[in-house]
Amino acid sequence: MECIFCKIINKEIPSEIVFEDEKFIAFNDINPKAPVHILIVPKKHIPSVDHIEMEDKTLIGELILVAQKIAREKNLAGYKLLINVGEKGGQLINHLHLHLLSGKSHLKSLNI
Ligand code: AMP
Ligand code: ZN
Description:
Elements: H1 4-9, E1 17-20, E2 24-28, E3 36-42, H2 57-73, E4 80-82, E5 98-102
Antiparallel strand pairs: 1-2, 2-3, 3-5, 4-5
The chain binds adenosine monophosphate and zinc ion.
């Protein structure tokens, strides 16, 4: 398996895990763009939002709820959730993931 996030899920490469259950893993981004920058990753290998199917709709809802849970646990005053889709959308890793970003004042007005 070539996928770096599947390797993180399988503990073949290390990461700073902040949350894990049977369906998701969340870990600190290795190259943080904000003081809090966590990636929330479904364990199911879905390459991108463009590959989501109807059968995944519960999983995608739960993905947002995991972000909410982590944000509450960390007492984040506000945060941004971001999903890059496809190479031209800035997606570097082809395993669906949600960026949770917080702690930088410019995020408030970030429009990307
Ligand atoms: P994206 O551009 O949306 O595909 O985001 C990929 C993110 O994964 C980037 O913010 C990278 O810094 C991050 N990343 C890449 N490799 C690792 C790794 N081994 N551990 C943690 N984060 C990583
Ligand atoms: Zn994968």
